[in-house]
Write a structure and sequence with these properties.
With about 300 residues, the protein is of the alpha/beta class. The chain folds into three domains: about 70 residues, no CATH class; about 60 residues; about 140 residues, Dna Topoisomerase Vi A Subunit, Chain: A, domain 2. The protein contains 14 helices and ten strands. The strands form three sheets. Strands 4-6-5-7-8 form a five-stranded mixed beta sheet. Helix 10 links the parallel strand 5 and strand 6. Helix 6 runs parallel beside helix 9.
Length: about 300
């Protein structure tokens, strides 16, 4: 849903009727409430709520709508033309909360110092380097929340983001940014975290591991294992792939873009445990999301002193 749909449902809760517009006429959420739950009624001009809608709204939408409204108002992002997607509002709130907790300050300073590109920032927070393309309102909101004045226009990200610690024992290169947003545990155990930006690994040929063991943490899907990992391994031959402990999720169930393709598993992976996990994921059409893993528990397999 986008903000127009959310606002319309709130209006139905308070006023019991809204005028039909193009967004509402094409809204899958509104169609669901009308045709599957029968708690809204629609004619050519109006949508009306039934007696059951109020209770359903309070259970499903009320708290979220208040949270979204408070956030957008507080950050001066609420305008008549506002039409953010609900997922984008959630992401902005998540970033804002991380910033307020102090868990984003190092990354924020690195974004500023490296003059990070728009596509680099897009990949960091939305896991798609093109997601922010042509989304000027969302870009403006992200700058406001991050307190960053500008993102560079170049497409290639050239900076490795690092969560450093005292007396590091090892390095973990992460496909996604999530682990770097939670600095306490990695630092407690002497884990230095790197983020290079998904497929944007060319810069890794200049990386200095200082003789530390280095491991790779990624999504266990086709892109993570058969596209990005070989590129990483080419740049850092000593890197080892961490075996995940997260629960597999269905690719279709999670609407995931990386689909399994025909591939020679044993040509790239010699570890029998890795091969068995990958074969099972392919057979069940599943993947393992990087941030679902317990990183410290995984590393205990390699470093018993943790």
């Amino acid at each position: 849903m986008n903000w127009i749909e959310l606002k319309a449902l709130n209006s139905l809760y308070h006023n019991e009727v809204v005028k039909v517009n193009e967004t509402l006429a094409n809204s899958s959420e509104v169609h669901f409430l009308i045709n599957s739950l029968n708690i809204l009624e629609k004619n050519s001009r109006e949508i009306k709520s039934t007696s059951d809608f109020k209770e359903f709204y309070e259970h499903r939408y009320f708290d979220d709508y208040k949270k979204y409204t408070d956030f957008l108002t507080e950050n001066k992002l609420l305008f008549p033309q506002t039409r953010f997607e609900e997922s984008d509002i959630k992401k902005l709130i998540e970033i804002d909360e991380l910033k307020k907790e102090g868990n984003l300050e190092e990354l924020r300073q690195q974004i500023i110092a490296s003059n990070e590109t728009l596509r680099g920032v897009s990949l960091m927070f939305f896991k798609n380097e093109k997601y922010l393309d042509n989304k000027s309102s969302l870009i403006k909101a992200l700058k406001k929340v991050l307190e960053v004045e500008q993102f560079a226009n170049e497409k290639d990200q050239q900076y490795i983001y690092k969560l450093e610690c005292h007396n590091p024992k090892l390095i973990v290169l992460c496909e996604n940014l999530d682990f770097l947003k939670k600095p306490v545990k990695p630092r407690e155990f002497g884990i230095e975290l790197w983020y290079a930006g998904g497929k944007n690994v060319e810069k890794l040929k200049y990386a200095d591991t200082r003789g530390l063991p280095i491991f790779y943490s990624c999504d266990w899907d086709y892109d993570g294992l058969f596209v990005i990992y070989p590129l990483v391994k080419e740049k850092i031959p000593a890197i080892e792939l961490l075996i995940p402990n997260g629960l597999p999720k269905g690719i279709d169930e999670t609407e995931h873009d990386s689909k399994w393709q025909l591939c020679n598993i044993k040509q790239l992976f010699s570890d029998e445990q890795q091969v068995q996990i990958i074969e099972k994921l392919i057979k069940n059409d599943q993947w393992i999301i990087e941030e679902s893993n317990h990183l410290i528990e995984i590393l205990k397999q390699y470093f018993f002193q943790f």
